[in-house]
Design goal:
The complex is a heterodimer of chains A (532) and B (148). By secondary structure, chain A is an alpha/beta fold. Chain A is built from eleven helices and 16 strands. The chains are: A alpha/beta (532), B mainly alpha (148).
């Protein structure tokens, strides 16, 4: 039994880092337990000649393929979209594309506007100060003036258009469709101790240059300087409760695998939309037989992924391929609801710049575009360095049958029950994806592309893990209240993507971190009566 | 060639043969085939966790060929290889991937593509800025986002 801490944070990723940094100014004793370790950028794939091959093994985005000691297995046989994540200090921000849009104002009011799902208990404008604070802390590059979103002022200039962006921009202008340089967390100038981007081009599996913001190099150094304590290689098994139904602390396995107990006055869960419900369900007890904070029965339900439809083709002129960050442009042409399209809500296009030679060869071989034998070389050279790609990030609406439960058999290396995913793509999402594919073909045609290929859904595309401990004012229809505190356990808070009531049609990290800062701010404002 | 290879000598020879069928040498492009000794050594050195599925694919290949691929004449080798490709599946895809991912990082091959044989870090690349006046028609659009 260790001395109790004031606040115990579980998970050191996007949201855990943000909440730790924000709460540090209270001078409370704050401890974070993280199942992974610190990453060493000198070992990231882009430092070696096998930089592309490692995407298929130790730097795969899939924890089931990657299978590092820090990872836990996931039974995802019941889902056409596989979970991708990263476990370590920085969490998913170590292994993300750094595309950094915010949810739109309409995303918080889908029931009122479109008669589907539920409205959020907060709105876009509530989060604006926290979006801005997060943009500054993570370091966002982008361009003000986008007519598709509310005004914002990224602190760094956007990434260059490059060859790929130029080809795409011209195609979009021919169609009269919206496009804009993406907001990203790639530093385009030297920023707060981070070196500017030098176009390693392999951003997703960790940036060796340190130009891409991950919370191990943004929030965590500041939080540690401010006195927050971070223990790595500590995997939490369960949260325990006392006789008053309050969270008492966490049982965890330390680096040597020994079970320990850490008492805490308040606990903040930041384990993502799969890890958080897993932990709550693994914390079932006589007092909470269906899992902790689960009187609504909604813990683990309403899982949303953002089904991705990826479309690409080949143009005659050379593209940037692997010689630039994959983030490039976005389009919000089909973001807001237009019922004439046959679905409600919408999607963002995320345009890429191309891929390196190994990805080109492997994916073209899989598509049957690359022959074996004499024709191989000519076919490869026609495609390599000429790919133009985009993905439609489709808004997934919450459905209770899409859920995270505990697998009855599968366990992690500590014997803790692993999560199981059951998920189906809805009719609305399927129609949206088809629309995204059809419109992307128009864009590629306008760009003069041929040999069009489609991956829909992207199999290993479950980047965004949302909705499994949703926020709301009604304890029967939500897990936490409008400021992140569990309805059932008054000293238990959730700050990750589990909170999302609906998913929007954008990459969620910016909004996840803004929510974490918002919850931390609410906690600070209520310190004298936090548990009332 | 490594002595603690996860593949038997017969499997290694079949791997060499099918790699050469997948990517033959080309005088036109001045590149070796994937059966080149240096590329084969790199495949075996880095096989790692893929060894099981590659072993499975080579087993299937030998079964379809009626024995080791290496003892067949070229036409029968190619026929067996194409049947294997048509069968598809995780093992065949893995076999193809381990060949491709080592081939397309070989110095000679990378140079033939007009690329530099080096990792991305620390040198990086140069990205041209582009013409931002392309944004003018988009800037002229009225606000598109909905106010709830």
């Amino acid at each position: 039994m260790k001395d109790p801490v004031d606040v115990l944070i579980i998970g050191a990723g996007a949201s855990g880092a943000a909440v730790a940094w924000s709460l540090a100014e209270t001078k409370m004793h704050i401890l974070c337990l993280e199942q992974g370790g610190w990453m060493n950028p000198a070992t990231y794939p882009s430092t070696g000649r096998d930089w592309e091959a490692r995407f298929y093994c130790d730097f795969s985005p899939s924890p089931n393929i990657r299978a590092r000691p820090e990872d836990y297995p996931i039974n995802e046989e019941g889902s056409p979209i596989k979970v991708v994540n990263f476990n370590g200090v920085g969490g998913g921000t170590v292994m993300y594309a750094a595309h950094f849009p915010r949810l739109h104002p309409s995303d918080f009011r889908v029931k009122s506007l479109d008669g589907v799902a539920d409205d959020w208990p907060i709105d876009y404008w509530t989060l604006v100060p926290f979006f801005e604070e997060n943009d500054r802390m993570m370091g966002v590059s982008g361009l003000a003036g986008d007519p598709a979103i509310p005004p914002r002022n990224p602190p760094m200039p956007p990434l260059p258009l490059g060859r790929s962006g130029t080809i795409l921009a011209k195609a979009m202008n021919r169609l009269g469709w919206h496009w804009w340089p993406s907001d990203t967390t790639v530093a385009t100038v030297d920023y707060e101790g981070r070196a500017r981007c030098i176009n390693l081009g392999h951003c997703t599996p960790g940036c060796a240059q340190g130009a891409k913001a991950s919370t191990d190099i943004t929030y965590w150094p500041a939080a540690l300087r401010a006195g927050v304590e971070l223990k790595t290689h500590c995997r939490v098994r369960a949260i325990t409760t006392d006789e008053h139904g309050m969270a008492a602390g966490a049982l965890y396995h330390d680096e040597e695998g020994k079970e320990q107990f850490q008492a805490a006055h308040a606990i903040v869960i930041a384990c993502n939309g799969v890890g958080t419900p897993r932990l709550l369900l693994n914390s079932a007890s006589g007092r909470f037989p269906n899992g902790l904070a689960n009187s609504s029965g909604l813990v683990g339900r309403n899982l949303m992924f953002h089904p991705y439809a990826q479309i690409y083709g080949y143009v005659d002129e050379p593209t940037d391929s692997n010689r630039a960050p994959p983030t490039c442009l976005w389009s919000k042409e089909f973001y807001e609801t237009d019922r004439s399209r046959g679905f409600v809500r919408g999607y963002t296009y995320q345009f890429g710049r191309g891929v390196g030679p190994v990805f080109e060869a492997v994916t073209s071989e899989e598509k049957g575009l690359l022959p074996w034998g004499a024709g191989h070389h000519a076919a490869f050279r026609r495609r390599n360095g000429h790919r133009l790609a985009m993905s439609a990030i489709c808004e997934d609406l919450p459905e209770e049958h899409n859920r995270v439960t505990l697998d009855p058999v599968l366990k992690d290396s500590h014997g803790i029950p692993a999560p199981r995913i059951d998920y189906r793509i809805s009719e609305n999402s399927a129609r949206m994806m088809e629309h995204g594919i059809a419109s992307a073909k128009e864009i590629l045609a306008a760009a003069g592309a041929s040999d069009i290929c489609v991956n829909s859904p992207i199999l290993y595309g479950g980047w965004h893990l949302l909705g499994t401990a949703r926020m709301g004012t009604d304890p029967e229809r939500s897990v936490v209240n409008e400021w992140g505190r569990a309805h059932d356990v008054k000293n238990l808070f959730i700050v990750d993507g589990s909170l999302f009531v609906t998913s929007g049609g954008v990459n969620p990290t910016s909004t996840i971190q803004a929510l974490a800062l918002y919850v931390a701010d609410q906690m600070k404002r209520r310190l004298s009566n936090l548990f009332d | 060639m490594t002595t603690n290879s996860p593949l038997s000598p017969t499997e290694r020879e079949d791997l060499r043969v099918i790699a050469g069928i997948i990517i033959p040498a080309s005088a036109e492009f001045d590149v070796p085939g994937a059966d080149d000794p240096a590329i084969q050594a790199e495949i075996l050195r880095t096989l790692g966790r893929d060894a099981g599925l590659v072993h499975e694919a080579l087993d299937e290949l030998a079964r379809r060929a009626g024995g080791p691929l290496a003892v067949l004449d070229p036409a029968r080798r190619e026929a067996a290889a194409m049947k294997l490709r048509a069968r598809g599946g995780a093992a065949v895809a893995t076999l193809a991937r381990v060949v491709l991912q080592c081939y397309y990082r070989d110095d000679r091959v990378v140079r033939s593509l007009g690329l530099e044989p080096r990792p991305p870090y620390p040198q990086g690349h140069v990205l041209e800025d582009g013409d931002w006046s392309l944004l003018d028609p988009v800037r002229a659009r009225p606000p598109m986002w909905r106010l709830p």
